[in-house]
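Example complex used in Figure S2.
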Amino acid sequence: MHTPWDHRYAQRTQRMGSSAIRELLKLTEHPDIISFAGGLPAPDVFPVEAFGGACERVLRKQGAQALQYSTTEGYLPLREQIARHSERYGIKVTPDNILITSGSQQALDLIGKVFINPGDLVLVESPTYLGALQAWNAYGAEYVTVPMDEQGMNVDYLEEALRTGPKFMYVLPNFQNPSGVTLSLERRRLLVELADRYGVPIIEDDPYGQLRYEGDHLPAVVMLDDQYRNNCDLCYHGNVIYLSTFSKILAPGLRLGWVIAPPEVIRKLVQSKQGTDLHTATFTQVLAHEVSKGGFLDEHIKTIRRVYSERRNVMLATMDRTFPPEVDWTQPEGGLFLWGKLPVSLNAAEVLEAAVEQKVAFVPGEPFHPTGGGHNTMRLNFSNATPAMIQEGISRLGQVLSANIPSKVLS
Amino acid sequence: MHTPWDHRYAQRTQRMGSSAIRELLKLTEHPDIISFAGGLPAPDVFPVEAFGGACERVLRKQGAQALQYSTTEGYLPLREQIARHSERYGIKVTPDNILITSGSQQALDLIGKVFINPGDLVLVESPTYLGALQAWNAYGAEYVTVPMDEQGMNVDYLEEALRTGPKFMYVLPNFQNPSGVTLSLERRRLLVELADRYGVPIIEDDPYGQLRYEGDHLPAVVMLDDQYRNNCDLCYHGNVIYLSTFSKILAPGLRLGWVIAPPEVIRKLVQSKQGTDLHTATFTQVLAHEVSKGGFLDEHIKTIRRVYSERRNVMLATMDRTFPPEVDWTQPEGGLFLWGKLPVSLNAAEVLEAAVEQKVAFVPGEPFHPTGGGHNTMRLNFSNATPAMIQEGISRLGQVLSANIPSKVLS
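Predicted assembly (822 residues):
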């Protein structure tokens, strides 16, 4: 007889559904369409040749090791490399503070698995990263949100949110996905103090920190937390779990991210990862270590900054020229995204339908708001399309917006 | 102030502990010790040179694609390759039946995530694969067990176990880890019928199916289920979720496994995987596809069979010669493991302590029994050590056993 699978799924799975927006976004994968909907790096900047050399050296010098099982914590030379790299940004850590994950998304999943009981509150920015919500919904998280302004999370609302007793707070301080906004230094310090006062851990997600195109680098929250505690130890023991990734600085197809946390938290994440996927692919870890050696990664990041900074400038200039005055948008100092605000009378999902007809696409902002709102917001990616495509696509979108705004505002 | 992390962990994490046996096994990683404790493939059989050629071709022909994000379902040409490969073993499936996972361990995790509510019963063989228990414990699974004999799961006890209402049953039909035993054809058919009668899905875990060293290949449970349903469609719609992996036939350091299931189940697993790690590394998928092409994998599997078969023979012959008559063991027709039974008066964990002093190690069998028992059992791996090491290590173990048995039996 037929197996009624639907009735076998766990409660957490019954809640998962395919969204209307996801269905709409499938249309945007058509090659005809200029899409600003994804979050893909530019394939033109992948260092294919350097990978070729690294593959050859790895297989010649340590082929059997690179193809064998390895430890759950991750390849030690890669963890040491990350520790040295972090130190240059003022984050003092030892390999015991570091876990390699199968992309940053897995770090979010493991954090959910280790911390979240069904019904637990998680404090997030609104809007926030959709992938984090997706990871934590599976563990039954509920959300308390703090609104954003042009300086990042609006700390005036933070203390009230902390008093709801969240399991942890989640913040993307640099060029936030989706808003493109950066948390100011003053607010970072306040965040550390308030989190400590209420005993609430901070998850700091920093995939884009090194992709700054203007202004000064701001210290990571994990570093400010370490300073705040006057920690003189080389090993970090504070209140922050910091996440980053090779996806935006090397290649997302490797699925390599890392977690920095106190050693006791790393040990718990390792136990959890063991049952989840044993360990991250040895081959990609050894390869990433090999290709990053000898200052290559630093030089490569300069290339990425140059390419993305140009694309951001082209997008902003074209928006200035073609978007109607009723639309506002952020001016990101780095990262991959900017954020648009339409008049409240408009629904971005409806605008997307009209845009797809004109062969251009973006992501409506509503799903990034876990407690609702944002129906008139949109996220635009500027890293993937070429400058010429950006000009063309944004001009088309400007026309769509202009065509929609007057009638909508009058209605 | 200090963050009391211990009190922040979720209920599922509080239950996780480090086991005494795991601590003991850490000792066995010392290079002095001949260890039969792990489950590692022989590094000598990794096709390092073939990987070198494949890396070069992939980066030259499709470098940007191999380094970019890709779909959660997995690289389509690899799924097509797996579909063709499965068909040769009589399992007729389309790519819609296939999901690529980050190793088979991730398939176990995703199945737990999608199906298990806290307290749900899972029907397993006793002993069973430790990694499955580890994956499902995190979702609050409880277990009902069916004992094994030399024909695999003892079906006389199966119907009673099915009547407890398990969420699914989990079976490793070929050269089971840990016991090395193979489920007979007659029992496979009965399994399919009983599972259908009670409406309980089957998870078939088959990492070693192609590593048979003697006897005839037996059809997979998923294939028998398809026959039982008289399915004429090319697409599989039955009651089995089948798992396999590249870890034992190509290289575990790639972390590549696959799931075969009805499309509706694949879709649910895909949704769940999206929040877990977005997708499995594109680079390793494209690489595995490239290296396996043109019949290479078939030839390579023949090499593995020859090497492992010799090692199994050496281990069995040395056991015959050096083990005391009070010890019994299985005669696996394939796979990586065999299973020993000591007199009930002995505790294998205590024997391990004595063995480590003599620089030889194995895994005590008790943890493989989720509902208790097996204190006098042990698992021995024969794939990793060279024949000379196997002879030396098994001889040492024979001495340890001989030294321990008389006094223990008399006491």
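The mean pLDDT of chain B is 94. Residues 5-47+298-404 of chain B form a domain with the Aspartate Aminotransferase, domain 1 fold (CATH 3.90.1150.10).
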